[in-house]
Design a protein that fits this description.
With 571 residues, this protein is α+β, with helices and mostly antiparallel strands. It folds into five domains: 96 residues, Tumour Suppressor Smad4; 93 residues, no CATH class; 162 residues, P-loop containing nucleotide triphosphate hydrolases (Rossmann fold), CATH 3.40.50.300; 77 residues, Helicase, Ruva Protein, domain 3 (Orthogonal Bundle); 45 residues. Helices cover 36% and strands 19% of the residues. The longest helix has 19 residues. The chain starts with a strand and ends in a 5-residue tail after the last helix.
């Protein structure tokens, strides 16, 4: 367990917290208390957790004193949850929380004053200036590396890669300084620089510097233990810069950013999803229509907008229509337009097909259309012209249609509720987006992405997500997929104040039970069981394909098909 001091101004207007944890990968086990208040000294007091797990407090010679239960203390004193604390005229309450909720898996800004993303003047800060989460490397790998690799892959240049690499090192790791230089460049301006360069390092700080014929990367870590744990990132960074240099476009050729548009933010770390977007970029801009299948909330419209951006000129229209949101008559008027006088008071207006001319028409929930409407859409796609309701004039439509549904269209075709000829028109390229439970590596990235969005909307800066809360998010099955995750983060952020972490107490109770099975639909539960049995068969068969087939009692083609459907990746 860890302790937290809730420090309040006497007016009650400020609420800030500091976590007092010991033995964090070689950092100083004590935390100094700093509060911007006239009655609190610059170095007022320090707190730490003893070997026995109790919290100790020591006054550092402050002018207005440190008080426990109204008595000014001299030297060190052990305190408990029932004690009342005061630093000068600033009062504090003591809480005990789980280690996982006391430590940030992700935070906005850096917990120091006067630096990028620092706390406000009234905030309480820690002299070690960072609380190291157990998953710092995971945060760097899942949140930062995809952005760096995307810049390298899309040949954005060394400068962009250096900025992303430097920003990641500065934001994620406990560093005092990060400097990246191009040794072949003229001038003294580095590719990236953050922190305060100093000839005299503070006690305990360690410099790690890597250099080759082209670049140097200097990182000043805040303690020797931290440098030993994370120092290898400097060597990795140098390798990434070298890779970016080797991938830069030949001189004289302008970089073509439209050739491979950037992936939606945040970049995926799931190979299956990355492959989907790579194929989407290749097929975009053609006359081939795209059918996106997947559960509700898996990001079908996000993929559709990516296809549009990758394949059309800037300014080309993207027109979206939810086919399940309107009754048949209104849906057809929206799709095809209507002529004046068809009904009393009706004015002529163009439909979505006309509005999307030269661009992309996105038909969401296409499986919910009536058969009569399906027939009319088929005619438009075949003739490349559209007639408004009640009209005789044909309007040309040069569009790429991207449609999406969470329904089983094969089953609907068998039952006669969806036209097979329309299906073949729409499914020039058919793709199945995996549910979030099959791309679990993306959950931290998505959570952080939505967290930043909601924090910015509410004007919060120095907040974060605790380790325990992030673990709960990663364990949940997310039957509502990405949309459900977004709503969960948005609801939790509403409960935060400046300086708070999103903790397990801010999440729905169901997420805290830690069961991957809770919230699963029958289909999802069957998928999980099937995936687990296939993985077990590979282990039992030692990876030998024939043995795996014998254990499962299925054919090679069936195994391959089910592995693709379930997102299982094996050599």
């Amino acid at each position: 367990m860890a302790f937290r001091l809730l420090i309040r101004q006497i007016s009650g207007a400020i609420r800030v917290s500091v976590d007092a944890r010991s033995r964090t990968l070689g950092s100083d086990p004590s935390c100094e208390i700093h509060v911007d208040h006239p009655s609190v000294s610059k170095r007022h007091a320090r707190v730490w957790i003893t070997e026995s797990g109790r919290l100790s407090i020591e006054d550092l010679g402050s002018s207005n004193g440190t008080y426990v239960d109204g008595r000014r203390i001299q030297g060190e004193q052990t305190v408990g949850l029932d004690h009342r604390l005061a630093f000068g005229n600033v009062y504090a309450e003591l809480e005990q929380v789980s280690d996982g909720d006391a430590v940030a898996a992700f935070s906005l800004g850096r917990p120091t004053g006067g630096e990028p993303g620092g706390t406000s003047a009234a905030a309480c800060v820690v002299t070690s200036r960072v609380t190291l989460a157990s998953n710092v490397l995971e945060a760097f790998t899942l949140q930062s590396m995809p952005e760096i690799l995307s810049a390298i892959e899309n040949e954005h240049g060394v400068q962009v890669v250096a900025e992303r690499l430097g920003s990641a090192c500065w934001a994620v790791f406990p560093t005092a300084e990060v400097v990246i230089r191009d040794l072949n460049a003229t001038g003294e301006v580095p590719l990236f620089e953050a922190g305060e360069p100093s000839q005299e390092r503070e006690g305990g700080q360690v410099v790690v510097q890597e250099q080759d014929d082209h670049f140097s990367l200097r990182v000043v870590f805040r303690s020797r233990g931290v440098a030993q744990t994370f120092g290898a990132v400097a060597k990795l960074g140098l390798q990434l810069l070298g890779l970016a240099r080797s991938r830069r476009p030949p001189s004289g050729r302008a970089q073509d950013f439209r050739r491979q548009p950037p992936l939606p933010d945040p970049p995926t770390v799931t190979a299956r999803v990355r492959e989907i977007y790579e194929r989407a970029a290749r097929i975009a801009g053609s006359q081939v229509n795209v059918l996106v299948l997947g559960e509700s909330g898996t990001g079908k419209e996000v993929l559709s907008r990516f296809v549009h951006r990758a394949g059309t000129q800037e300014g080309a229209p993207f027109v979206a229509l939810n086919c399940a949101a309107l009754p048949k008559e209104l849906l057809e008027a929206e799709l095809f337009g209507i002529e004046k006088g068809v009904a009393t008071g009706v004015e002529a207006r163009a439909g979505k097909f006309e509005a999307a001319h030269g661009g992309t028409l996105f038909l969401d929930e296409v499986g919910d259309m009536a058969l009569e409407t399906q027939a009319k859409i088929l005619r438009v796609l075949e003739e490349r012209t559209v007639y408004r309701l009640g009209g005789k004039q044909a309007f040309p439509v040069d569009i790429q249609v991207v449609s999406a549904t969470n329904r089983d269209l094969d089953s609907m075709i068998e039952k006669g509720t969806f036209r097979a000829d329309l299906f073949y028109r729409l499914a020039g390229w058919e793709i199945q987006l995996p549910p979030l439970r099959q791309r679990r590596g993306d959950i931290p990235n998505l959570a952080v992405h939505f967290f930043k969005q909601e924090a910015e909307r509410l004007g919060l800066h120095n907040i974060g997500i605790s380790v325990s809360a992030m673990d709960a998010l990663k364990r949940w099955s997310w039957p509502g997929n990405i949309r459900e995750l977004h709503h969960e983060i948005a609801r939790g952020v509403l409960l935060l104040s400046e300086g708070d972490l999103l903790e397990t107490r801010h999440l729905r109770p169901a997420l805290l039970e830690g069961s991957f099975d809770r919230g699963l639909t029958l289909e999802a539960a069957l998928e999980r069981t099937e995936r687990r049995r296939i993985e077990e068969a590979f282990e039992e068969g030692g990876g030998a394909l024939e043995d795996v087939l014998a254990i499962l009692g299925i054919s090679r083609s069936t195994l391959y098909r089910r592995m693709r459907a379930l997102g299982i990746e094996r050599d």
